[in-house]
Amino acid sequence: MERFVGELLARAGELARSQGLPCQVVLGGSAARGTWLAGDHDIDIFLCVPEHRELEEAMAIGRQLVLEHEERYAEHPYVHASLGGFDLDIVPCFSISDPSHLRSAVDRTPFHTRYVAGRIRGLEDQVLLLKAFMKGIGVYGSELRTGGFSGYLTELLVLKYGSFEAVLEASASWRPGLVIDLENHGSAIHTQPLVVVDPVDPRRNVAAALTLDRFAQFIGAARQFMVAPHERFFFPAPAEPLKDGELVRALQARKTMIIVVEFRPPDLVEDIIYPQLQKAQASIRSLLDREGFSVLRSGGNVSGQWGWLLFELLVWELPGVKKHPGPPVWEGQHLDSFLQEDRLILSGPYIEEGRAVVEVLRKYRRPDDLLRDRLGSLSLGHHLSPSIRSSFVLYQGWEILSIQSQDFRLFLSRYLSLRAWPAAQD
Amino acid sequence: MERFVGELLARAGELARSQGLPCQVVLGGSAARGTWLAGDHDIDIFLCVPEHRELEEAMAIGRQLVLEHEERYAEHPYVHASLGGFDLDIVPCFSISDPSHLRSAVDRTPFHTRYVAGRIRGLEDQVLLLKAFMKGIGVYGSELRTGGFSGYLTELLVLKYGSFEAVLEASASWRPGLVIDLENHGSAIHTQPLVVVDPVDPRRNVAAALTLDRFAQFIGAARQFMVAPHERFFFPAPAEPLKDGELVRALQARKTMIIVVEFRPPDLVEDIIYPQLQKAQASIRSLLDREGFSVLRSGGNVSGQWGWLLFELLVWELPGVKKHPGPPVWEGQHLDSFLQEDRLILSGPYIEEGRAVVEVLRKYRRPDDLLRDRLGSLSLGHHLSPSIRSSFVLYQGWEILSIQSQDFRLFLSRYLSLRAWPAAQD
C-alpha cells in the first residue's frame, strides 16, 4: 500500500509542477497516520491549491492522474477510481491557514492529518485495535447507514485515553451528553449524545454523526468484552444468506407475521438512500401501529436492483369494531362536525377523558389491505416515494419464502440475528 | 308526600320535647325546597341539636320515630328506613352558627336548605326540568358511581342562570376549569373540572364530585337538545336485558373477544364498592394492555350476589415472540442483571433508543392464561381483592351466552348501547 501511494503522490506532484499549479499533495485519512486498518480499501489524496486559484485546476490534475475514473460530487466534485485493489478518491481543496474559516468541509482534512500525525506516534496499534473492535461489533464508520465512529474520532479517543483498553474502560462511565475536549477550547453547544470538540476547529463536533444507539452499543460491547474478551469481537462470524429450512424454523418459533414490501430502488448513493429507507419504515410503522397492527420490529435494505422494507407484526387480524375518538365535547363546532360524519356507529357516542368517542366499523381488518390502499399516499422519502408508488409487491407470512434473492436472504439473516455484541462463549 | 312528611316532622318534634332535647327538626334536600323530582324516593330529616348535647340523643329519637329501621354510618350514625314507599334518612347533626366551622359534613345541610329556600321561589319548575334532563341523560347524582350533579348543584345553577334553558345555553361556553361563585366569596383553589363555590361555605366546591366525563356529557347533551329538543332526553327508553339473539348479533358485528370475570362481591354500599370496581378494571386493563392484549373498552357491575368485570379485546392471540426492553446500556449494573436473566432469547440483545432489548419467548399467548395466572396478584381494591382472589370464573367469547342472570344481561345491554345522549330522531 505504501509503495502504491508513494508513487501516486509523486506523480500528482509532478503533474502539478508541470502545469504551473502551486499545489500541496497530501495523503489523507488513516493511510497518512499509520492507522490504516487491513482490509480497508479507501485511499484519499488531497490536492490543496491556494485560495486565489480554482479547484477546477486541481480536478484537471486528478483526471490525468488516473485515466480510468469517474467524477463524483459531494460539496464539490472529486475524482474516484478503483485502482490496484483500492478505492481511490482524489479530492481538490483549498490551502487555508485557519480551519475555522473553511471554503469547504474537505479543506479541514489536511489539518486533521497534521494534528494526529504529530501526536499518534507509538499509539498506532492502539488505534488499529479500537477500529477493528468497532468494526467487528458494527459501530465503525460515520456514514449515515452506520451512524458510528469515524476514523478521526477513534484517533482522538486514543489520544485522550492513551490506549485501546483505556478507551474501553473509560466508556463504563460514559453517558449521553459527554463532552471530550482535548484542547479545552470548545465554543459551541451541541445536542448529540457524544461531543468530541475538534482540536482544529472549536465549533465542530467530531462525533456529530454518532447516533445514540451506536454510542450505547459501543459502551455495552466494551463492557461485555472486558468481562470476557474474545476475538469474535474483532472478527465476527460473517452472516450467511438464510436457507429455506432456517427461515421456516425461525417463522415457526416466532409465530409473527412478516410483511415485505419489495420495490425497485432509485440508483443513488447510500448516504442519500439510507435515511429515506429509515423514513419509509417510520411512516409505514406509524400507519400500521395507528391502525392497530402492532409492529415488533422493522428493517430496510437496498441491494442493486431491489429494495425491501420488512415489518414484523404481532397483530395482523383485527375485529370489526374500531374506537374512533373525537374532539373534546366542549369544542362545540368540532363536536358537530364529528357527529355529522357519515358512518355506521356500533356504540356511542360516549365520553372518555372529556372527548366524544364512537365505535365504528373498521375499514382495514388486515394489514395487506391497509398497505395496498394507503402505501401510495404515505411520505416515504423524496426519491423512494415515487419508486415505491410506481410499483411494489407485497409478500406476507410464508410467501416470503418465495423471494429467492440471496441479498434478501442475507438481509433476513441479519434481521433475525441482530446483536449489539457477540454472544457469550458456550 | 307533603302530608306524610308533615306528620313525620310533627312527631319528631313531639318526641324531642317529651325527652327534654332542644332539637330543630329540619326537612332537608329537595323535599324542603319544592324541587322534589317525582319518582325520587329520598326524604332526609335532620335532627339538629345544640353543640353541647350529644348526637346520640338525636339518634335515640330517630330510632323511636320509625321502629322498623336500620342504623347506617357515614361520618356519623344515622337511621334509615323504608316507609310509605319512601327511603327515609333521619340524620342527627349539630346546630351551628357558621357553616365554615362544621362539626360534621351533615351540619351544613340545613344552611343549604335555608339558602335555597329563600331564593328559589318561582324557579322550582326550572330546577325540576334541569334535574329531569340530567337524570334522563345519566349525569344526575353525586354518588361515586355517577360522579354527576347533586340536587343542590342544580339549584345553584338555576339561581345563577335563571332558568333550565339558560343553563343549557350557558353550557355551550363551559370549559374545564370554570368557576361559578354566586356570592363572590370563593377562597380556595380547586382542581376539579367545575368549581361552584358553596354560597354558605367559601372554601367548599359544591361540584367536587362531578367528573370530567359527566361534565363533558352534560355540555354535549345540552348542545344536542338545543338543536333537536325531544322528550327522550328526559325519559329515555329503559334498558332491557339483552336476549340471546341480540347478543349473538352484537358479537357477530363487533368480532371482538369479550372476557368476563364473574365473582362473589362483598356486601358493601355502592359508594365503597364502585371505586373498587373502577380500580379493578384499571388494574386488569393495564395488565392486558401491557402484555399486548389491546383492550377496546371495559365495564364493571355488582348486583346482589354477583359481580362482573368485562373486558372487550381487540387482540386475544399473540405470537411466540415478545420484545423485552432492558435498561439504558450505560447503566452497567442494571445491564449486567438484565443480561444474566435466565430465558430463551430469540433475537438480540440489540439497542433501541439507548436501551438493551431482547426478543424472548412469550409466556402468555392468550388472555385467559394470563388472567388465570396473574389475577390473584393484582391490586383490585381493598375489599374486592380478597373476594375475587377467593374464587372467580372466566367466560370468554361465546361462553358469555351461558351467563343467564338477567342482571348480567342488563349490564351487557347498557355496555353495548352506551350513549352520552339519546340518538338523533329518525
**Strand count of chain A:** 15
Q: Based on helices, strands and strand pairing, what is the structural class of chain A?
A: alpha+beta
Mean pLDDT across residues of chain A? 92
Largest interface by Cβ-Cβ < 8 Å: A-B, 57 and 57 residues
Strand order of the largest sheet of chain A: 1-2-5-4-3
Contiguous helical run count of chain A? 14
Give start-end ranges of low-pLDDT stretches of chain A. none
Shape of chain A: elongated
In N-to-C order, the SSE pattern of chain A is HEHEHEEEHHHHEEEHHEHEEEHEEHHEH
Helix content of chain A: 25-40%
Oligomer, anyone? homodimer
Radius of gyration of chain A: 27 Å
Main pleated sheet of chain A:
5 strands, mixed
Proportion of residues in extended strands of chain A? 15-25%
Give the N-to-C terminal Cα separation of chain A.
39 Å
Question: Can you summarize this structure?
Answer:
The structure is a homodimer of 426-residue chains. With 426 residues, chain A is an alpha+beta fold.
Describe the structure.
- Two copies of one chain form a homodimer.
- With 426 residues, the first copy, chain A, is of the alpha+beta class.
- Chain A has a five-stranded mixed sheet with strand order 1-2-5-4-3, with helices on both faces. A four-stranded antiparallel sheet of chain A has the order 10-11-9-15, sandwiched between helices. In chain A, strands 6-7-8 form a three-stranded mixed sheet, covered by helices on one side.
- In chain A, strand 13 (345-352) and strand 14 (355-361) form a beta hairpin.
- Chain A has helices spanning 2-18, 29-33, 55-65, 109-117, 124-137, 151-161, 164-171, 212-227, 244-254, 270-290, 332-340, 367-374, 384-390, 406-416, and strands at 24-27, 42-49, 70-73, 77-83, 86-94, 178-180, 194-198, 201-205, 257-263, 295-303, 306-313, 321-328, 345-352, 355-361, 392-396.
- The mean pLDDT of chain A is 92.
- Chains A and B meet through helix 8, strand 12, helix 11, strand 13 and strand 14 of A and helix 8, strand 12, helix 11, strand 13 and strand 14 of B.
